[in-house]
Amino acid sequence: QGRAVDALRFGIGMRREGYNLYAMGPEGVGRHQIVRRLLEERATAEKVSDDWCYVFNFAAPHRPRALRLPPGTGVEFRRDMQRLVEDLRTGIPAAFESDEYRARRHEIESEFNERQTNAMGGVEESAAAQGIALLRTPAGFGFAPRQGDGVMNPQEYVKLPDQEKKRLEAAIATLQEDLEKVFHEMPKWRREAHRKLEELNRQVIRTAVNGLIEDIRLKYAALPEVLEHL
Fold first, then answer.
1. Which of 49, 68, 119, 213 is exposed most, by the fewest CB atoms within 10 A?
2. Interstrand relation of 140-147 and 132-137 (parallel, antiparallel or unpaired)
3. 39 or 132, higher pLDDT
């Protein structure tokens, strides 16, 4: 039907938005095929369209960014990004299983434990030098006068001279203050250790991610918008 074909060519050739083609006719007359063939003929004479890729906007998640890429690059870029995500899903957990990470994490944890142990040990040594024992009980820590290798029982304590009792009481009060200072510092030491662990985790992730992304950056080095997104 020559008039129908002419109408299709006329419609395809229009350069204004808001116009559409509607092909109507009985089943089996090849409407879809003729429209597609005419469009393909026209497309061969047109400039190849750029690819458009919508990517996540890290600054404004509700507003995706549109990247304009050379023809044929969009599908390849999408495939590379999908492969990158898959590699990250295995690469990041593997980085945390490395011997180097475990050693550095153990070093941070050991530093905190050693700091805590030394602080408690200092109080304990100071107490021992004054004839006082540092007691660890289910309820916490306490001090008591020493007797030999053990703790002086109440009956023996009562027999002590008043001056010795006052000395012990004053020493225990001072030791208690020292112990409270240690307990006051412990949360700060724990926070410092936690911050060091967080920074270590960031470094490990950054190394794993940057290594995988660098290959893609080299591939798309000529496309600034892709590099910015990466």
1. 49
2. antiparallel
3. 39
